[in-house]
Amino acid sequence: MTPPPRPRPPGEARDPLGGLTLVRVLAALGIWARPGQPSDAGCARATCDPRALAAARAGDPPPAQARDARSPGCDELLEDVCARAQRAGHAPATVTFLRDAWAALGPDARLRVAAPLASDAPTWRGRPAVQVDGTTCGAAVGAMLLAAGDPVVALALETGTVLGAGTVLETGTALETGAAPAGVRSPAHAPALTAAAAGFDELQRHLLGATSRRAVLGLLPWPRRFGTPPWGLAREARCADVRYRHVVVDVGDRPRTDALAAHIEASLRAGTPLPLFTGGASRTGWSTAVPRHVVLLVDVEGTSWRVYEPSCGRVLTVDTGTWAVPERRDAWGRWSRPHWILLPR
Hints:
Layout: H1 22-28, H2 50-58, H3 76-87, H4 92-103, H5 107-114, E1 123-124, E2 127-128, H6 137-149, H7 151-159, H8 190-198, H9 200-212, H10 230-236, E3 238-239, E4 242-248, H11 254-269, E5 274-279, E6 291-301, E7 304-309, E8 314-319, E9 337-344
Antiparallel strand pairs: 1-2, 3-4, 4-9, 5-6, 5-9, 6-7, 7-8
């Protein structure tokens, strides 16, 4: 007896870009297809503690008793920021400088440094957080992901300030500036911090170059006109101490997308944003059947996921029950389906 066909969610039968995709072929071959077990890293909070953020948004007054600005508990938002900076690998001296810099920030700037993706229209230095051009959507997503997990990078983007500047260069050479003790900032942080201090556009250009290097067979550069390859972004992406791996998304395999949705939900509720590659299918040409755009799944809001879309610089929403239904969505950059996703290792 033939089993009845699986009921389709609303909209699934209206696939505007039906046909084959590269990821369907890879999924059929079992390449980069299975999410596996949830990673412990995905359960570590990588963005602002929601309780601290809610209190800051509401403008709750500080405790009545006077406390030193560095006392634990006097400012939950600051403590969360400092803890994230430590998890991102910054030295204790850098965290001390971060506390000092925090005191000079206004309320709005503090929120941008603490939680860059909390706003539905994120900005840096008064400018919308949009991609530089048609090739930098993945780099813009990588930059916002980096800032969400590393308040020192977020501070550089917001103010142009590099904490401990002039103490440790990429080469590890100390400068006699007297600004801070040597070793304040890891050489691994230096290139991204220098780019962030120059602005959001420059950080995108830096990350586009980093994700493109050795992206072809681990040896050759990826052509920049093709944007950011998923494996290149997975190699470079980080949020606090969370690192990523890449997995293809086959919207035609409902059990697998359901399992993947559970992984996504767990990571987002734990505070770990996830880059997602979107595109079309072969019906409109093979050039649309590959990943064409990158967005960032930010967090959970009711029955929706909040999504940073870099071409418009806004945070939009997608219903969690129909996220894999092929239909054009503003949150996907007007593409119709997810193709690839980065998950915590």
